[in-house]
C-alpha cells in the first residue's frame, strides 16, 4: 500500500533532478558558446535564454564556489553539483526501495 504513494513521489523527485541536470548541461554549453563568441548576447532571444539558464543555475553554483573556488580559471561547480544530485538520487532511491520492501 505504501508503494502506491511512494512510487509517484519517487518518479517526481527523479524527474525534477534529471531536468535540473539537463539545465546544468545547457547552462555550461551556453556559457562556452558565449565565451567562444558563437552565441551573441546582443540577440534578445539568446540573451533571455542565457539569463534564464543563469538564474536557474547560478545560485547553486555560487554556493559551491564558496567552498571550492575555480582552479586556474576552471569552474568545477557544475560537475560538483551534478555529482551531488546523482549521489542524492542514489540515496533517495535506495531509501524509497527500503521503505517499500519493509512496509
Structure report:
With 103 residues, this protein is an all-alpha fold. It has one domain. It is built from 3 helices and no strands. The longest helix is centred in the N-terminal third of the chain and has 34 residues. The model has no long low-confidence stretch (mean pLDDT 93).
Gyration radius, rounded: 18 Å
Q: Which percent band covers the strand fraction? A: under 5%
Largest sheet: none
Supply the number of structural domains: 1
Termini Cα gap: 8 Å
How many extended strands?
A: 0
Helices and strands: which structural class? mainly alpha
Helical amount = over 70%
Mean pLDDT: 93
List low-confidence stretches: none
Q: What coarse outline follows from CA principal-axis ratios?
A: elongated
Instruction: Provide the succession of SSEs.
Output: HHH
Quaternary structure state of the chains depicted: single chain
Number of H- or I-type helical stretches: 3
List descriptors:
mainly alpha, 103 residues, elongated
Short description:
The protein has 103 residues and is an all-alpha fold. The chain has helices at 2-35, 44-67, 77-101. The model has no long low-confidence stretch (mean pLDDT 93).
Amino acid at each position: 500500500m505504501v508503494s502506491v504513494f511512494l512510487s509517484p513521489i519517487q518518479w517526481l523527485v527523479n524527474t525534477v533532478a534529471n531536468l535540473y541536470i539537463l539545465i546544468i548541461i545547457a547552462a555550461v554549453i551556453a556559457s562556452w558558446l558565449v565565451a567562444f563568441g558563437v552565441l551573441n548576447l546582443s540577440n534578445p532571444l539568446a540573451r533571455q535564454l542565457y539569463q534564464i539558464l543563469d538564474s536557474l543555475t547560478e545560485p547553486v553554483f555560487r554556493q559551491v564556489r564558496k567552498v571550492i573556488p575555480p582552479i586556474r580559471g576552471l569552474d568545477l561547480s557544475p560537475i560538483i553539483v551534478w555529482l551531488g544530485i546523482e549521489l542524492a538520487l542514489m540515496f533517495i532511491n535506495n531509501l524509497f526501495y527500503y521503505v517499500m520492501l519493509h512496509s
